[in-house]
Amino acid sequence: MRKKALQILISLFLLISVCCGETVTLIDFTGHQVELSAPVTKTVSLSAAASEILWALDEGKSMVGRSTSSNFPPMIESLTVAGKHSNSPDLELIMELEPELVIADTMLSEEDRKVLEEDGIAVVVERFIDPNRTLLVIENLGRALGKEERASELAGQLKGYHDLIKERISGTNSEERPTVFFEWLGKPYHSASNGTSYDNFIDFAGGVNIAANESVDYPDVSPEWVIEKDPDVILHILGSSKDYTEEELEQWRDEIISRPELQNSRAVKEGRVYVLSGTVATGVRSAIGELYLAKWFYPELFEDIDPGVEHEKLIKEFYNMKLEGGYAYPSNA
Which segments constitute the Fe/B12 periplasmic-binding domain (predicted)? Predict the structure, then answer.
């Protein structure tokens, strides 16, 4: 009798384990504590960067919905569109899809988050451009999906790039760090200050953001202000919602170096004007963007590194794809 009772208890325990899974607790970028029953089998991603990570971890098997901006890898475009971006989710459609987890970036409003959570859907809000945060996001999503081993492989690859950059620029002093004027989204003189993701991105690669001490997160500065600062480097990062050709990136660079007010600037005269696709500034591929920045900032320290080749390897290993399109210009600087 005792033996039979024990067998019943064991069977119930196994049944509960299979049905309910392991409870996983994640702390997202906003500090919210999110509890999930892992492995999660149905997800909706409202962030292109999150979609890249999810696909790298489980080949999209868990994804039932995506944002319009989620267009990589190309196979993802067959999924249901559940909103344009995190700031414009289709809440009704998302609830119809019945995901266990929604992943969004910091543009998701607290009101929209509350609606989803009240429907019983777990919501994780993350920042995807910060180098160190990206590794943590990969680890957390790996735990949620029950893909810890794959997450470890992916994070390990990216950490290898991070460590390479940190090691090579570790011997530089503050006077040697290049000053950088950064603008983005195709908007001339629209920059970013201290504490923003883009400021972290530049700092990680060893640059000094000249707009770091501006009083607002995303200031619009004047051409005269840039000329007075006379940075070593001018960097423009385009949006991440579309792919670019190398010719398009070259056109953006030509627009910058042809601005009459910048003709006597150090960066233009020395040819240190660069354009980066936003697709390699967030998520899995942000490590490639960091390599490009590091090589542009310190060409002599990264002479043997070809970010394009590393990009090809990364895409082949985690997406089984051939790399196409343009991501940085000039890519061979």
Answer: 42-305
